[in-house]
Amino acid sequence: MTTDRITERPSAHMSDDHDALVSPDHLMSPEHLVGRLETHARDIPDRPAVVFVRHPDGRPVEETLTYGALDREARKVAAWLRGRCMAGDRVMLLYGTGLEFVKALIGCMYAGVVAVPSPMPGQQRGHDTRSAGIVRDADVRLVLTTSGELSSITAFLAEADAEDVPCVATDTLDLAEAPGWQVPALDAATLVILQYTSGSTSDPKGVRVTHGSLAHNVGEMAHAFGLDSGSRMGSWLPQHHDMGLMGKLLLPLHLGATTVLMTPMDFLRRPHLWLRLLDTYRITTTVAPNFAYDLCVRRVTDEQLAGVDLSRVRNAGNGSEPVSARTLLNFAERFASAGFRLDAFNPCYGMAETTLLVTGTGPGRAPVLATVDADALARKELRALPADAEGARLVSSGRVNDLTVRIVDPDTGRTLPDGRVGEIWVRGDSVADGYWRNPEATERIFRARTAEGEGPYLRTGDTGALYDGELFVTGRVKEMLVVNGRNLYPHDLEREVQDLHEAFQGLAGSVCSVPADGERVVVMQEMRPRGSSAADLPELARTVRGALAERVGIRVGGVVFLRPGQVRRTTSGKIRRSHMRQLFTDGSLPGLYEDLDAPLLREFRGSAAPAAQAPGRSA
User: Where does 277-421 show beta strands of DSSP type E?
Assistant: First the structure.
């Protein structure tokens, strides 16, 4: 298969010392994080561990926590927790981005209790339901938060019928020093974190992350990104999400490196602040979902970019959702004047069930792009085309290091050869211990065996193919559309739609298929209604239908236009396509306009009215 490889200012805040560098052999050490932090506190007590940068009114305000201070604060929290919890009790952490979360998280580890990071209720649609589900599922002993959030969290617990769970603001506790603290009894099988999957709602699944799987995956990440204790990392990712928690907090803490954090809201409101953070703190490694790089291309102005130097970025991880070749090329072109290089991109793949990382592109390797035959891809086969030919453009998510990856037919369990698309199955020490109190799902997802009897494997639910050692991720098994015998990926159709009109650009869409006299494809697309009159919407719907018929060769049964923000996402930014499908079929998604053919109207709207509905009809 033919692929193509697209081929310092001083800071007052961070030193350039590279003492106590971690050797590659030691990066794979099974030593648990608590022991590593105790060593860092002794050997590099004054090195910044976490720098948190707030941006009130756009101006940076910095707080720093050194390794020595982190150790002292974690000991205090641990001593306090030990007076109230037993080893293995679950403690829920409800914090925004900041140092209080870091102290509480490491304090839980020092105390031998299980940390349960969770999104703050009330910040995004669905967070209240998700967090309430986590409280019930994890059977938490305590909830920790800050004084600024205490009243709202207490009210949330009452609404969740969990008012009996104590809620404590850690920033107001008068914690005593704990000089006699000792590392609790921990081994590779000890549970350290319950990481709830980002798609969870009222029926969440808590991934059992052990000290062993965490230590192994830290080694995998360090290898994939070429990191050591002299690396500088930075991110805006939520601290409760697996990519932000493992990749941009616990990884650098394990290495003895420094990580610089900012809030997700600061990034979403002013994307240029992320780029300026990379420059100001001389950050070499960052990571974000694909949409974040797109957002920067669309919204960062030349004025905001003036004076920003991105030449020190050696690893720009792109993961959490399918990586777009167009995104990589557009970002590299837009920010080339600031020193960003395309070969700094590190497309990667992972999930909470593998602690985090499965594959990465590797240090010093340019992204691997492949142009493949779209019709062959619809038949679950990668067939290479010349790089300049018309076809589907795929991006490799990198190579496998110390894990085993198989591509498996999800229906038969048969292992597929290179170049064939199937479900991605993973085996190795990074794989978590299963789901919390869910033996049936654990057996089905974490204990799978191939038809040849090999296993156990984790079934990821993602589709992809291996070729020449590269993993190409193509989509989700459950979200794949089967139309007239062809296998289509919704994210490909969504990208086609978003390029059709300026009213769609930069906004989310969701494509699904529903049963109505056969399978019918439904396109749900956010749009900016400003500048588009009601009379324009039927024509715009016809444009969507015609474009997908011409470019992809499919007949669209329904087009639904939504207001910005109505397409539901997970906390990591992934489109919740199954949920959007349910909202459509339930008729519970009020939209701007819908255009449905007769079978869809009969099946889901109880009407055989003409296909095009008046603007304002609930979609």
Answer: 285-288, 315-318, 345-350, 357-360, 368-372, 392-400, 404-408
- Phi and psi, residue 556, nearest 5°: -90, 125
Q: Give the DSSP letter string of 176-238.
A: PP-TT-------TTSEEEEEE-TT-SSS--EEEEEHHHHHHHHHHHHHHHT--TT-EEEE-S-
358-476 carries CATH number 2.30.38.10: yes
| Residue 566 · residue 526 · CB < 8 Å | yes
Q: What percent of the chain has pLDDT over 70?
A: 89
| CATH class of the domain comprising 481-605 | alpha beta
Per-residue pLDDT of 45-72, as tens digits, reads 999 999 999 998 878 999 999 999 999 9
Right CATH for 35-269 from 1.10.3720.10, 3.40.1080.10, 3.40.50.150, 3.40.50.12780: 3.40.50.12780
Query: 589, exposed or middle or buried, with CB in 10 Å at 0-12, 13-18, 19+?
Result: buried
- How does DSSP classify residue 567? S
Q: Is 455 exposed, middle or buried (0-12, 13-18, 19+ CB in 10 A)?
A: middle
Would you say residue 619 has pLDDT above 50? Answer: no
Question: Which helix or strand (DSSP H or E) is residue 116 part of?
Answer: strand 114-117
CA triple 88-91-97, angle to 5 deg: 135
The C-alpha atoms of residue 598 and residue 606 are separated, in whole angstroms, by 10
Burial 30-45 (b: 16+ CB within 10 A, else e): eebbbebbbebbeebe
Burial of 609 (0-12, 13-18, 19+ CB in 10 A): middle
The Cα-based distances of 49 to 6, 29, 145, 159, 455 in angstroms read 34, 20, 21, 37, 39
Whole-structure pTM value:
0.82
